[in-house]
Amino acid sequence: MKILVVGASGRVGFQLAQKLSAQGHQVIGTYGQHQPDLPQTAQLDLHAAVSEMRPVMTGVDAVYFVAGSRGRDLLQTDLNGAIKVMQAAEQSGVTRFIQLSSAYALQPERWHDGYLKTLTDYNIAKRYADEWLMHRTTLTYTIVQPGVLTETPATGKVSFDETTLGENSIADVVSVLAGVLTTAHAQEKVIMMKQGDQPIASALAAL
Amino acid sequence: MKILVVGASGRVGFQLAQKLSAQGHQVIGTYGQHQPDLPQTAQLDLHAAVSEMRPVMTGVDAVYFVAGSRGRDLLQTDLNGAIKVMQAAEQSGVTRFIQLSSAYALQPERWHDGYLKTLTDYNIAKRYADEWLMHRTTLTYTIVQPGVLTETPATGKVSFDETTLGENSIADVVSVLAGVLTTAHAQEKVIMMKQGDQPIASALAAL
Questions:
Q1: What are the extents of the domains in chain B?
Q2: Which residues on chain A are in Cβ contact (under 8 Å) with B132?
Q3: CATH of domain A2-205
Q4: Measured between beta carbons, which residues in chain A are less than 8 angstroms from residue B105?
């Protein structure tokens, strides 16, 4: 498949682009300012208009949105940037869209849990990006919502149990993101994840 | 009618509450920190949960959302605060909702026009609040989108022409907001306004 990874200079996006490439996909990694060391990249300014985003979508089978501003530009990047990428994808005939979100982004009643209570602005941005993808587009979506991301080795195991927050190795998040692409019953689903006891492949198969 | 004005300590909300009271309505003006000098007020924290917002909606016929953070708290007040008020209204059986927005909030292709180019974050917050009201609620809405607000005397005249930006006396915006409440064909409409040549009553009648 031809896959666009939006946010390929980020911690998740870079590993994701590498993994999808290794699986044989043609991957274009987009970046804002810092070009990542990947086989195929394209600059994509998330402040640009939808019409300016369309050219990079030509012939693309699936878009991953894994960009983020780390709290510095939530309205323009994490919220409106994401939605403009969705609109550009739809206008370009892309049908599959996989979005990296955050634990409980769609459940504001949980935003006081643990570390989330310091991230209300972030949660609001992610919430309305997720809501738009689910309810205002015709894209076949999957939304992945991990808890805290850690730069630790892959465990290869996860839990999709939504009852509590948990940590996630970035490498495991990348494996889940890559895995949902080829998991038909991951379509139209929101997947909350954390480290757990279930091998990723079987957790995906049990969705 | 029993009317809730959310943001009654603000420049628009205070005048609006006074005008609606003078018209014979029972008006409850909500405020965050600074209680306005109005006959009936209620504290309403826009950071609170939807469930905590419901009590103030009891028996209310129409809600005005005219609160704003002046850029200081866009995600939590102007965006998520507005949407939580909508949800509390719906859950409380309120059917009529009138929202103060901003010129071209729903037309991002115009966000580089004039003074708007410094207000992208604000426009994004207003855009998604407006979008939610129109597409994700069952509320009977009217959205009023003025250009720059000025603390100048009422002119009593407006233009609803959408081709260019313009200024608006706050008093004129208040007259339009009050007027749409009793204008049946203002329902389910977005009204962009600026100072103009048409008396407000006839402009509303011509909607």
A1: 2-205
A2: 128
A3: 3.40.50.720
A4: none
Token couple for B127: 């855009």
pLDDT tens column, B152-187:
999 999 999 889 999 999 999 999 999 999 999 999
What are the backbone angles phi and psi of residue A24, rounded to the nearest 5°?
100, 0
Determine the distance in angstroms separating the CA of B121 from the nearest CA of chain A, rounded to an integer. Answer: 6
Give the whole-angstrom CA distance, residue B74 versus residue A75: 9
pLDDT in tens, A140-170: 999 999 999 999 999 999 999 889 999 999 9
Judge whether B49 is closer than 8 Å to chain A, CB to CB: yes
pLDDT band, very low/low/confident/very high, at A25 (cuts 50, 70, 90): very high
Assess B72–A contact: CB distance below 8 Å, yes or no.
no
ipTM of the complex as predicted: 0.95
